[in-house]
Amino acid sequence: MSGDLAGLLVEVDAILLDFDGPVCSIFAGYPAHDVAAELVELLRHHDVDLPPGLAGEADPLEVLRWTGSTGNYDVTRAVEEALCTAERRAVGTAAPTPYGRETIVAARQAGLPVAVVSNNSAGAVTAYLTLHRLEGHVAHVIGRAFAEPARMKPNPEPILHAVRALEVSPSRCVLVGDSMSDIEGARAAGTQVLAFANRPEKVDRFSKAEPDALITSMGSIAEELIRRCEEPDEESLGRIG
User: Residue 145 needs a FRET pair 20 to 30 A away by CA distance; which of 80, 155, 189, 193 works?
Assistant: First the structure.
């Protein structure tokens, strides 16, 4: 862990979580590269001229981004619908991130509302939260805008949508994310940013982006929030004294 995590959490009134990474690995059982390949095949079915390299793209969100850049809304809508279906299927075999659940529950217990802000579809996020009995701990779910991939993070729009829904100032929110798009989107939205380097190669890259704090385990957040819940507040200490 780097940066003052405890100090950062004291300064915020709400926690925003990216989904795929901080909460779970959505494509753990239904690999992302398989989904991307299916989307590329769908583009071929629609007789779309593909650029070199797209056939080997492993990230289905990048296939969707590229499709949106063509300006063909009908094809973008078809790819969006196929991706939504794939994400809903993937939820059933998604792997929970260690301490992701504990972080969400501890945040609520500490009085910090949680919103999930994801480039995945809101339907998939909600389905996962319901399956894992977390829906009651999450105040809002903000997924990607349907068939408008340009509005995904790093566009700050979904982050600001979550901030408005929580009725909190952007500067009093922290976004926990595991990608550069999360860091860039948080900066553009004016929120604090907590980088989650869930793979060793991300540590140096994220450090160079100078987030407000950096962690390698969601357990760091959960532990700090639990510790905070266990501390007596000043009013209670006054009554004891």
Answer: 193
CATH code of the region 5-25+96-240 = 3.40.50.1000
Helix (H, G, I), strand (E, B) or coil at 91: helix
Indicate the residue type of 19: F
Average pLDDT of the segment spanning 28-32: 98
Q: Percentage of residues in the chain with pLDDT exceeding 90?
A: 93
For the chain, the distance separating the N- and C-terminal CA atoms, rounded to the nearest angstrom, is 36
**Strand pairing category for 173-177 and 192-196:** parallel
* Burial class for 35, CB neighbours closer than 10 Å (0-12, 13-18, 19+): buried
What pTM does this model have?
A: 0.94
State residue 231's pLDDT score. 77
AA letter at 82:
A
> Mean pLDDT across the chain, nearest whole number?
95
Using only C-alpha atoms, the chain has a radius of gyration, in whole angstroms, of 19
Report which of 107, 86, 111, 118 is spatially closest to residue 22, judged by C-alpha positions. Answer: 118
Which tokens sit at 92? 């059933």
Residue at token pair 């797209």: 54
Contact criterion met (CB below 8 Å) for 51 and 24: no
CB contact set of 68 (below 8 Å; sequence gap of 6+):
76, 147, 148, 149, 150
